[in-house]
Amino acid sequence: MTFIILAGCIVLLIILITWIKVNPFLAFLLVALVSGLLLKMPLADISKSINKGIGDTLGSLVIVVVLGAMLGKLVADSGAAQRIAQVTQRLFGPRRLVWAMTATGFLVGIPLYYNVGFVLLVPIIFSVAYQYKLPLVYIGLPTLASLSVMHGFLPPHPSPVALLMQFNADMTTTFCYGMLIAIPAIIIAGPLFGRTLKNISSSPLIINRCIEKPDRDLPGAGNSVLSSLLPVLIIAIASLLTPVFSNLAVRSVLLFLAEPNIAMALTIAIVTYTLGIQTGKKITQIMGVYTEAVKDIAMILLIIGSAGIFKQILLDSGVSSEIATELKGWSLPPLVLAWTVTALLRLALGSATIAGLTAAGVIYPLTEQVYIDPNLLVLSIGAGSLFCSHVNDTAFWLFKEYFGLTMKDTFRSWTMMESLVSIIGLIGVLIIDYLK
């Protein structure tokens, strides 16, 4: 009966989000309440679980996500992303423009959320395609493949960070494993797969040429790249140096710097000068950029918090042990099971973030009884969350409408690319699990 209730609640969540079009935050909250009642939790305990679920989830996450959004917005607004695009194109040359645009998407995708990166890079994609008379999809899809992989696999993006916190994974280890998987996934699903799409014609209603800043107004290349990657560099360097020093005071400082919250806060302090004041912006303008960044991700935070409520209801109702016992009986390996559950939710819900967070609530009880490498579990769920983007995913329509494609060609290009990335991600996770 418990599993029927759980399945019914997930179906209700899907119906509320995809059919009735209820806001995901409200849908999660409603389904969590219904779950608690159907699972016969005391009313007072339901209220406590709601508070604990949203508090525990956002308490460990909100600083990283908010500061990451601020960094991404400043990278875009300062022209640093434009400079990164220029540098990669110069490095690769006109004959390797696809690889240049893929590298641009890769670098820009580390600090930027997918939607921000999409809006930022689409004008550049259009400019390059028209300037060199190349097929739009052939140039654009590899770039967006990079953005999608970074968004689904790697911190500091919301879903991977939330999964890191939930499964107590190590950010540096997960990032390193993720990079090993992300690079081949991007290459295969981007430039290599893109070669099969040269004959796809596009008829965009608007020619989105890049409105570029004058070169003199852009930050330098080194400044742009280092500022964008600074959180990753701080965490990685501090983590690598910690075992080297025996002095407790030095180790304490390095461990302090390796904390994601501290690394992000230090990064914002530095880039406020390097990408803000140094480029001629007043402090009030920079703070305005940061305010807009927080507005952009406010709903994302609420959705993540409400997903944490659903997870907490499953734990506090006692259903967690039943789920774990049942899942242990499945013949699928745990990492494959995590990917499968997430992929099915992605098919049903559309949103990669919601699919990943919902799957985490279902898989989490298993981790309390069976050891699963938390770093690889984060990546397995991240890979599953990208599987088969179709008509219930806003990114599907964003790509179709901007690039002026038919439904058939959107499935052939975008949906296939996302599915390739997801399957390659799972294969990469299993290879690392086998070799380590």
TrEMBL record:
Family indicated by similarity: Belongs to the GntP permease family.
Transmembrane spans: 5-38, 58-76, 97-130, 136-154, 175-194, 225-246, 253-277, 297-315, 336-364, 376-399, 411-432
Species the sequence originates in: Ohtaekwangia koreensis
Subcellular location, record wording: Cell membrane
Membrane topology: Multi-pass membrane protein
Alphabetized GO MF terms: gluconate transmembrane transporter activity
Keyword set, alphabetical order: Cell membrane, Membrane, Transmembrane, Transmembrane helix, Transport
Domain of life (superkingdom): Bacteria
Matching InterPro entries: Glcn_transporter
GO cellular component, one term: plasma membrane
Principal location listed in the UniProt entry: membrane
Keyword Cell inner membrane annotated: no
Listed name of the protein: Gnt-I system high-affinity gluconate transporter
Taxon lineage: Bacteria, Pseudomonadati, Bacteroidota, Cytophagia, Cytophagales
